[in-house]
Amino acid sequence: MLFRRTGLLCAALLLAAVSSGTRASAQQASPGAAGHAKSSEEIERIIRDYLLKNPEIVIEAIEAYKKRAEEADRVAVARVLKDQRETIRNDPSSPVGGNPKGDVTVVEFFDYRCGVCKRVHDTVAELVRTDGKIRHVYKEWPILGPQSVAAARAALAARNQGKYILFHDALMQHRGRMGTDEIFGIAKRVGLDPDRLRKDMGSPEIDTILRRNYELAEALKINGTPSFVIGDELIPGAMDLNGLRSVVRKARKKG
Asked: Which of 27, 55, 69, 239 would you call most buried, defined as having the most Cβ atoms within 10 angstroms of its Cβ?
């Protein structure tokens, strides 16, 4: 559907541009030739007939547009990765795991109701466990509904009881429904005080943290979870262990 709409838009723009240019040319023609100029309706019909006979032009226009848009996005993301490097890597409000003094920072955007996030969780944990020099920054980015927001708020509130990572791991390992009952059941199982947790979840500080994460994800043009920033590279989607290790090696070489 998106492709079709984009094609119609490109065709319309092409038609408008060519028609505008042709009309301008006709208006600039000499008085003696004006009587032979075609009307705008005739010009538009000719262009329409041509596009119908040569639809590949529309496809070419769409592909050219997509390439320009992708390149513009790539440049914009590279700028954000550079200009907001400290915010991405060292925001004090973002929980940190692994080696806090590690030489490579792996920033992860995730949602507790994201199936792919849950599957890649063990992979990231293995990367951190076996490397020893990975600094893992957690970016709560609940995008899959109110239950996701509740889980993210609970996880961030768990920091006040010193159990963020333990609770995070338990939430990621949970399978099935992720409602309020399940969230607090998991919290109790890992030793959190549910009453205190419920109170801390309403903290304005958590509102600020989540808002910053949403804004950062938007600036990086991230459109799904999980997504990672490793070094100066944005990785949209999951990777296997070898893939992650390869990106880490590249980041480590760059320093």
From this structure: 239
How far is the C-alpha of 164 from the C-alpha of 158, rounded, in Å? 5
Q: In whole angstroms, what separates CA 27 from the centre of its chain? A: 48
**HSE, side-chain direction, 13 A CA sphere, residue 16:** 6
Angle, CA 131 vertex, CA 130 and CA 137 arms, to 5° = 110
Position 59: which residue type?
A: I
pLDDT in tens, 144-196: 999 999 999 999 999 999 999 999 999 999 999 999 999 999 999 999 999 99
Q: Which of 73, 110, 104 is nearest to 89 (CA)?
A: 104
CATH of domain 87-254: 3.40.30.10
Residue type, 239: M
Angle at 54 between CA 53 and CA 56, to 5 degrees: 145
Q: What residues contact 101, with CB distance under 8 A and at least 6 apart? A: 135
Strand ranges, E, within 52-152: 96-98, 104-110, 134-140
Q: Where are the domains of the chain?
A: 2-83, 87-254
pTM, two decimals, is 0.76
- Residue pointed to by tokens 């009309």: 23
